[in-house]
Amino acid sequence: MIAYKYKLYRTDKTKHLDKMLREASFVWNHALALQKRYYRLYKKYISCKRMQGHFAKRINRFLLHSQTVQEILQRLDEAYMRFFKHLAVRPPKFKKAKHFSSFLFKQGGFKLDGNKIRINKISKTYKFSLSREYQGKVKTVMFKRSPLGEYYIIVTTDAVANAYGKSHNGASVGIDFGLKTYMTMSDGTIVESPRFLKTDLPSLQKNGRKLSMCKQHSHHREQRRKDMNRQYERIVNKRNDWQWKLAHVLCRKYDRIFIEDLRLTGMTKLWGRKMSDLAHAEFVNKLKHVAGKYGVTVHKIDRFFPSSKTCTCGYVNKELTLRDRHWTCPECGTRHHRDELAASNILRQGIVELESDRKTTCRPKTV
């Protein structure tokens, strides 16, 4: 599956997409209200299939396709499932229409023809910038609105991504993510973080002060809000570009990459804006995506392995704190740099875990 993103040309007909998003927001909020009320009365959860049947029989939508309504209900059900499995810290909440940003067509309700897309329900045709041709059979089409009010369409097809192939067979590396440096690798390479948010923070704060002085619901305030969102968008684009390039460099150089399984939500509570600026979780997702094209293995070691506290002789320094950047092993007398030691231990532990998993998988069954 490949997703292609195109920018929609803004015209007077864009207001109809705003109306469709308002209707999508109503579907989400109404279904959420039903779930809360049903649980308050009966202490039970309404299944997604039952909720879809209720909407099909009782509630008529004038702008949204039936499968679009089903997809919104599936999205709400998935949010609840994440909460039930303790993957999310809170259940889904109500959303204002201006904060609801996307709706999706599955098999029907639209027609694609070159750089034109027609929405059958409202009988409107929109043009988009066809920056590259999409390949394969179209599976879904999503309309997404940015904080700036600009619309994009995301076309997902059944095409298969081209594989790059391995370019450096056998090379392995352990990576330790840090706060002072972006990452330290077991071969001694240190990657510094550009800290895009920190660089533009004075300008953002200045624009924020100007925004706070504007009158509520005024045209001037809306312009200031868009200026801030535009600046945030530039920061995100610069960070994404840097992370994608770094992921490609690593996958071209190494055959196996071992990283830590960090609890980033807890770290974000401790260091807040700094963790958001580093965006380690986003980089890991990009690294996995790129690794799939290169045929590179990305393996996460056990979260509770003390990588920075374990000496090469096996001694574990339980008194080590985050302030200690260097420490000396009392058993063998070796002096360690905290991040370099962690990267080396991640490499060794990753190889052990990967090989043990392969032996377990390849072990013949006994009768």
> Strand-residue fraction?
15-25%
Helix count equals 9
Low-pLDDT residue spans: none
Distance between the termini: 40 Å
Biggest sheet: strands side by side, in what order?
10-9-8-11-12
Taken from the alpha-carbon principal axes, the silhouette is: globular
Classify the helix fraction into a percent range: 40-55%
Number of strands: 14
SSE series = EHHHEEEEEEEEEHHEHHHEEEH
Structural class, please? alpha+beta
Largest sheet: 5 strands, mixed
**Cα-atom Rg, whole angstroms?**
25 Å
Report on the architecture of this protein.
This protein has about 375 residues and is of the alpha+beta class. The protein has 9 helices and 14 strands. The chain has helices at about 15-40, 50-60, 65-85, 195-210, 220-255, 265-270, 275-280, 280-295, 340-360, and strands spanning about 1-5, 100-105, 110-115, 115-120, 125, 140-145, 150-155, 170-175, 185, 190, 255-260, 295-300, 325-330, 335. The protein has a 5-stranded mixed β-sheet with strand order 10-9-8-11-12. A 4-stranded antiparallel β-sheet has the order 1-7-6-2. α4 (about 195-210) packs antiparallel against α5. It is globular and about 75 Å long. It starts with a strand and ends in a 5-residue tail after the last helix.
List keywords for this structure.
367 residues; alpha+beta; 5-stranded mixed beta sheet; 4-stranded antiparallel beta sheet; 9 helices
Layout of strands and helices, then pairs:
Blueprint: E1 2-7, H1 14-42, H2 48-58, H3 66-84, E2 102-105, E3 110-113, E4 116-119, E5 124-127, E6 138-145, E7 151-157, E8 172-177, E9 183-185, E10 190-191, H4 196-212, H5 219-253, E11 256-259, H6 264-271, H7 273-278, H8 280-294, E12 297-300, E13 326-328, E14 335-337, H9 338-362
Parallel strand pairs: 8-11, 11-12
Antiparallel strand pairs: 1-7, 2-6, 3-4, 4-5, 6-7, 8-9, 9-10, 13-14
Helix pairs in contact: 1-3, 2-3, 4-5, 5-8
